[in-house]
Amino acid sequence: MDVETVTSYRTARSRADLALGPGEVYLAGGTWLMSEPQVGTTGFVDLTTMGWPDIEVTAHGLRIGATCTIARLVAWAESAEVPAGWTAASVIPDAANALHASFKIWNTATVGGNLGRAYSAGALVSYAAALDGVAWIWRPDGTDRRMPVADLMTGNGTHSLAHGEVVRAVELPAAALRSRLILRKIALAELGRSGAVVTGRVDEDGGAVFTVSAATLTPTVFRFEAVPDAATLADAVAAAPDYYTDPLGSADWRRGVSIVLAERIRGELVPPVTTASEAVA
Predict the structure, then answer these.
(1) What is the torsional sign of CA 247, 148, 36, 67?
(2) Is the pLDDT of residue 33 over 70?
(3) Among positive and negative, which fits the CA dihedral 212, 217, 219, 221?
(4) Shortest CA distance to 250 belongs to which of 189, 201, 212, 195?
(5) How sure is the predictor about 275, in pLDDT bands with cuts at 50, 70 and 90?
(6) Residue 42: exposed, middle, or buried by beta-carbon count in 10 A (0-12, 13-18, 19+)?
(7) Among 9-13, 63-67, 139-143, 189-193, whose mean pLDDT is lowest?
(8) What is the C-alpha separation between 143 and 201, in angstroms, rounded?
(9) How far is CA 182 from each of CA 83, 179, 245, rounded to the nearest angstrom?
(10) Rounded to the nearest 5 degrees, what angle is found at the Cα of 57, between the Cα atoms of 76 and 132?
(11) pLDDT tens, 166-186?
(12) If you compute the radius of gyration of the chain from its CA atoms, what whole number of angstroms results?
């Protein structure tokens, strides 16, 4: 789409260049900015020229640069670059396929843009929230702040970023990456965007974390000391706030299928019971 209100474009190469002028907004992949009119926007500030590393393996876990594309992240997850034991990285392609980032735009859409747009069905929103991901945010006054990705969104398409703040990276803790993570999704149309996505994980200490996204306006995270029983999990998922209705599904349908998906995940996470006869055999 022609964004006819935009009359200026500049590249950012230092933190000082990120200061926004009147009418300016940040541009990374631009897959949303170029998809509909941007009323009130008169200039783009390109973040892709900042030179931020795409993927960094640190002592604490994984740091994904905000300008890393979805395609680059998926390629990394499928490569030999993934540290041994980071089993949860294998779910990245499923997350990318499940949500609002089709393969057609993977080579352009960025991780930071996906989070900053704050759609409930954002490709990296569900994955990062499921793994206790933290958004590293640069403030316009030169200071930094960090906040959980699950708390970054305030609604479907709204977020808590102040004017001039920019997501610098997403950080995933190594402990969560070593967990056993399962993602399940459902859509009304065979090739449609997911109407509900549920993840479940079991950590090394036995703690369990379930997350509902796409079905709710913001990610909803449930924490348990161990994998809960079926009734406890169903009650928790049913009570999640902000199930919503849109052309991709009604609120009641989203709630119902989220309960079903959560139970399927729970069944896969619970270790099979070995009987005495089986143990002897």
Answers:
(1) negative
(2) yes
(3) negative
(4) 195
(5) very low
(6) middle
(7) 189-193
(8) 33
(9) 19, 10, 25
(10) 90
(11) 999 999 999 999 999 999 999
(12) 20
State how beta strands 55-57 and 43-46 pair: unpaired
Say which amino acid occupies 187: A
d(CA 264, CA 89): 21
- Put simply, whether the predicted model's pTM sits higher than 0.90 gets the answer yes
What is the average pLDDT across 194-215?
Answer: 96
